[in-house]
Write a structure and sequence with these properties.
The complex is a heterodimer. Chain A is about 5% helix and about 40% strand. By secondary structure, chain A is mostly beta strands. In chain A, the strands form three sheets. Chain A has a four-stranded antiparallel beta sheet with strand order 4-3-2-10. In chain A, strands 1-9-8 form a three-stranded antiparallel beta sheet, with no helix packed on it. In chain A, a hairpin with a 2-residue loop joins strand 2 and strand 3. Chain A is globular and about 40 Å long. Chain B folds into three domains: about 120 residues, no CATH class; about 230 residues, Heme Oxygenase, Chain A; about 100 residues, Jelly Rolls (Sandwich), CATH 2.60.120. In chain B, the strands form two sheets. In chain B, strands 2-9-4-7 form a four-stranded antiparallel beta sheet. Chain B has a four-stranded antiparallel beta sheet with strand order 3-8-5-6, with no helix packed on it. The chains are: A mainly beta, B alpha+beta. Chains A and B meet through strand 4, strand 8 and strand 9 of A and strand 1, helix 8 and helix 16 of B. Strand 8 of chain A pairs antiparallel with strand 1 of chain B.
Chain lengths: ~110, ~500
């Protein structure tokens, strides 16, 4: 496993080997780091949109829905404290990682 | 007769009542979070508590051999609204200091303290401190005070995601590696202080708040019945208690350290000089260990503390030898450097990991929260302590700055709010922190600003001094009477531009 600590204001997208993750601030204020590949056909979830009515993230490819509860509880193990986040990635500790700032279209607007 | 029908009826009737009750409680809690009384009633109860004789203001700087004398600063309890919660920037503020003094008084009624000698002279205080009146009143205000000072942790820390035991293990290992590679800022600050001996003694004094009754809070978790984890946890606690051999008890070792640094080892002798953050750390352990619904948070906090304390103690031991030379007894820290390497492993492998295996991954967020809360409070405590050392080091600069600012007040170009005090020699000695920067200006008589048990700044007529926000200090009138003005500033540095 690989432990990564970074500033969520500076970075919101993380690539570790073959895996990619994006940060999402949920309506309850909590932050989740979620696998970017949709469980259905691998659609890029960070390019999805947030459905305010259903309170869920919608995949841009086939509209697979992810509720806030699923995003919060099934994301990568994450701690947010004092403006820093620490994530525990399920990849070998030698994995190269890349942190970038992207536009997260799936971000709920109110957050 | 078969009782199952009756039981079913009882169970069947319960949901509606429970739902109704829950709705009432929710409405109540949303109105007054952290309290079971309306704010006005809570305020009255807090004032009643602070007015108890054990907690009354006294004239002594040090409290000698009386573990039941624990002044709160009664005036401040009347001034603050404890039903509101502090945020992180206010966690070292004036209301937090008063709340933490009260909380430690409440928590420690569960512990046994006896004076070293002359019990007869303390018998009334003893009876009053452990009386049902005191304990009951304390219990009535405890939830409000806990919410006041600890609720901000909920906002500061978020734990999300699908945690597993392996993820917890990786996270903790990473934490330990980073900690062991770090220099402790606190030790660096002491060694590089203008007066390292003063700063070193200040640290030992602050640690006395917790170390003289070491492990008392976590021992709250050794009772009950919860399987093999309980016995493993017990092993850690009995190490701290020296296996019943008094000279090996960790608090005894710490008494020896204090003695060799010319400090008093009686419980809470330095009560008035405890920083807000020192009280916070002691109270946090009680907060999570006393309320057993926070059990998993508690074992997370204890696992982190035990894992990190070994390196911390090695560094503190080195620092003490650098500062005091060979005269100081560092065995307390040397022993922890050794034993906490084991305790860190034991706490994780034999308590935290089995707890997760037995009770499921659902307990992990609480365990992680405990680990994070303790780290955050430790970071705040380090900042607080370093700021206090820096305050003492910067007194000459603060004095000259105060003169420049006061000159502008006199000429009229600055008009800060001010309160005039007329003090007498017989007034109680109270230590405080303030939420604003303050400038003291003595108009007549002589005033000592007391910044530590052996550290005073004497202010005569016309003398001025700045006390930055959240820095602990007291005032003692040296002349028969003293008239002084205290000016408030949001940021005294902004007055210089």
């Amino acid at each position: 496993m690989l432990v990564v600590t970074f500033d969520p204001e500076q970075f919101n997208f993380l690539t570790a080997g073959e895996s990619s993750y994006f940060l999402l601030r949920l309506p309850d204020g909590s932050l989740t780091l979620y696998n970017d590949y949709c469980d259905h056909r691998g659609g890029p979830l960070h390019l999805g949109h947030w459905d305010d009515l259903a309170q869920c993230l919608v995949c841009p490819w086939h509209a697979t829905k992810y509720s806030a509860r699923v995003l919060r509880n099934r994301g990568t193990p994450l701690i947010e404290r004092s403006g820093r986040v620490t994530a525990v990635l399920d990849v070998p500790s030698s994995t190269q990682i890349q942190l970038v700032k992207k536009t997260i279209l799936a971000q709920p607007h109110a957050c | 007769m078969n009782n199952s029908g009756q039981t079913s009826l009882a169970i069947a009737a319960a949901p509606d009542e429970t739902a109704e009750l829950r709705e009432t409680i929710n409405a109540f809690e949303s109105t007054w979070p952290g309290t079971v009384w309306p704010p006005v009633e809570t305020k009255r109860l807090i004032e009643l508590y602070a007015a108890r004789p054990n907690f009354d203001d006294t004239s002594e700087w040090l409290i000698r051999d009386n573990p039941y004398c624990r002044p709160i600063d009664r005036e401040s309890t009347q001034r603050f609204d404890f039903t509101q919660t502090v945020n992180r920037s206010e966690a070292l503020g004036a209301s937090a200091l008063a709340a933490h003094r009260m909380l430690l008084n409440i928590y420690e009624t569960d512990l046994v303290f006896l004076p070293e000698k002359n019990f007869a002279a303390r018998k009334n205080d003893f009876a009053s401190y452990y009386s049902n009146d005191n304990k009951l009143l304390g219990e009535m205000i405890r939830p409000t005070l806990e919410a006041h000072v600890f609720q901000f942790l909920e906002n500061e820390i978020n734990v999300t995601g699908k945690w597993t035991l392996e993820a917890v293990k990786s996270y903790l290992q990473d934490l330990i590696v980073k900690h062991e590679q770090s220099e402790l800022e606190m030790c660096t600050a002491i060694v590089s202080s203008a007066d390292p001996v003063r700063a070193g003694r200040a640290l030992l004094l602050q640690l006395a708040c917790d170390f003289l009754s070491e492990a008392s809070a976590s021992a709250r978790n050794i009772l009950g019945k919860y399987g093999a984890i309980q016995s493993e946890f017990f092993k850690i606690v009995i190490d701290d208690y020296g296996y019943g051999v008094h000279p090996a008890k960790h608090s005894t070792l710490y008494e020896n350290t204090l003695a060799t640094a010319d400090l008093i080892s009686e419980v809470h002798a330095y009560w008035k000089f405890y920083l807000t953050s020192s009280l916070t750390l002691s109270n946090y352990y009680h907060y999570v260990c006393r309320d057993h619904s926070k059990y998993f948070r508690a074992i997370g906090a204890i696992a982190v503390a035990e894992s990190m304390f070994s390196h911390t103690c090695r560094k503190v031991s080195q620092m003490l030898r650098t500062v005091f030379g060979k005269s100081v007894d560092t065995y307390y820290f040397d022993e922890h450097f050794h034993i906490d390497a084991h305790h860190g492993r034991m706490a994780f492998e034999h308590v935290v990991a089995p707890a997760i295996e037995q009770h499921g991954n659902g307990v992990i967020p609480d365990i992680i929260r405990g680990m994070e809360e303790l780290q955050l409070l430790t970071a705040i405590a380090d900042e607080d302590f370093i700021a206090q050392i820096k305050f003492l080091d910067e007194l000459p600069d603060l004095k000259s700055t105060a003169q420049a600012i006061h000159a502008r007040i006199v000429e009229g170009s600055l008009q800060p709010s001010a309160i005039t005090h007329l003090g007498t020699q017989s007034q109680p000695f109270i230590t405080r922190v303030n939420n604003q920067d303050q400038l003291y200006a003595v108009q007549s008589g002589t005033l000592d600003l007391v910044l530590g048990p052996d550290e005073t700044v004497r202010l005569e007529r016309g003398h001025v001094m700045i006390v930055p926000r959240q820095r602990l200090h007291g005032t003692a009138v040296v002349s028969d009477e003293c008239c002084y003005r205290v000016f408030d500033f949001e940021d005294y540095r902004s007055c210089l531009s």
